[in-house]
Amino acid sequence: MTDFTLWDIVRNLLLAGRWTVVLSLIAFAGGAAVGLVLTLLRMGGFKPIRWLIRLYVDVFQGTPLLMQLFLAYFGAAALGFDVSAWTAASLALTLFTSAFLCDIWRGCIEAVPSGQWQASRVLGLNYLQSMRHVILPQALRLAVPPTVGFSVQVIKGTALASVIGFVELTKAGTMLNNAAFAPFTIFALVALGYFILCYPLSRYARYLEKRLYGAGIR
Amino acid sequence: MTLDFSTLLPYSGVIIEGLVTTLWLTVVTTFAGIALAIVVAYVRDLESGIMSRLLGGYVEVVRNTPFIVQLFFLFFGLPALGIPISAPVAALVAMVLNLGAYTAEILRAGIDSTARGQHEAARALGLSRLQSYRHVVLVPAFSRVYPSLISQCIIVMLGSAVVSQISVFDLTYAANFIQSRNFRGFEVYLVVTLIYLLLAVGMRRSFELVGRRLFAFRQGGSA
Fold this sequence. Notes:
By secondary structure, chain A is an all-alpha fold. Chain A has helices spanning 6-43, 47-61, 65-78, 85-111, 114-122, 127-157, 169-180, 183-214. Helix content of chain A is 82%, strand content 0%. Chain B is built from 8 helices and no strands. Chain B: It is found in: Cell inner membrane; Cell membrane.
């Protein structure tokens, strides 16, 4: 049996950590794009669409992310698609992220006082113009802190991709542990890796939130 | 392909067994996690020494690392240190520590919004420190953050799916088990996902029902 030095373990974890970062970025970018479209559709007037999007959000928020990953992975295979762990993880995490962001952003848009809507409509702006020039800029300020805060959940969510065989930080940890058998050290280092990624974002989100409330908005 | 749910029927016992595990894990975690959170929030609110800092560190570590890593750390790491721990115990401890940290932070937000003066007024009226803390600080704080508390408990219930990875026979473990027998992964996961969804809806309803009784004093007030 080969001996693993601490540096071997750290080096391998760092290499795998890249994929945690890449998967987080894919999930966040994809989730933000889908989430934005869903939010705008949901704010529109068409009832059946609003109802469907609400159902979408409730289903993704009311079921385990692990199940969503299994469904994407095994479901696609059952439907005859040959998906890699990469595709399944990206897809599931994107949909998961989009549902949560859609919910967060809807709240932010609804938090803009309705008088702002009425005023811009009275001034002759149509729905899209009001949305773009009056509502969204105000909603955006409210949206930044919770969105940054949610990015922490996305990073932590990518750890579940390890279960379907995607080699990121957590999977690398279990693989290394099978070879080196130093679970305490290895999983402490894995946890440290996530902490280094997440803690600054958590702090930043809290700072933004304080600044926003300090500015007397809401 | 065609969906065939009939192959699931012989396994309904397995699903029920998994469901029971998920349910008891969730119920015990909810009570123990909230109790832990009250202690953590109390200490962090009233003391400012080393204990308070340690608890602050605990909250931050739990909130900024994935649950699955916390679980692996407890289940694989503790035995390596000579502390034997069974899979269900590791799962329960991880879930309680997780809910405790998040709830402590949620509670803190509720406590912060209670004016200091109210606590002092209650002390001046002759309530003991604990009485005043309970009635004037804690209960109003709970009623204020109750919606976030419900969501957090549901998140932990859904997150418990991960305990299947250290072979605790929960609902997700049951799904994996059936999938490995009848190779009908999609159908199994669809049904089990639906069960989780129903659990989440049921939990929210029950919490709301309990909340209406617990915080009846707020009705008609500035709720």
